[in-house]
Design a protein that fits this description.
- It is a single chain.
- The protein is of the alpha/beta class and 117 residues long.
- It has five helices and four strands, in the order αβαβαβαβα.
């Protein structure tokens, strides 16, 4: 006989699981190419869900537009490796969103290096 789930007493949720859920509820997200096709669509959704979004762009005009949509904007070029590393290291995002292979490899190296430090 299968018990109805709603009628069964459940163990309390462990405190560590509640902490993980709270931490995941609002994350620091970094979008490389915040003013690009993907960033422009994704960033407002992330902001609306309560995430803190830092969006990178090469243009001061685009940075103003990103700020108006609720993101922290940084002006940098992914092909300037030193600047890109500096920006990502300062922001300390939990998630890096990108859509270019070269950017992906660089971002993953930065995240791994931070975890090992």
């Amino acid at each position: 006989m299968t018990a109805d789930y709603a009628q069964v007493e459940h163990a309390p949720v462990p405190a560590w699981l509640c902490a993980v859920k709270r931490e995941m509820a609002s994350m620091e997200v970094f979008i490389a190419g915040g003013s690009g096709a993907i960033g422009r669509c994704l960033m407002p959704m992330l902001v609306a869900q309560g995430h803190r979004v830092t969006a990178m762009t090469r243009s001061p005009a685009n940075a103003s537009a990103l700020r108006a949509m609720g993101a922290d904007a940084v002006i940098a070029d992914v092909f300037d490796a030193a600047k890109f590393i500096d920006v990502v290291t300062r922001v300390k995002p939990r998630i890096v969103i990108h859509h270019r292979r070269s950017e992906a490899a660089m971002a993953m190296r930065i995240v791994r290096a931070r975890r090992m430090a």
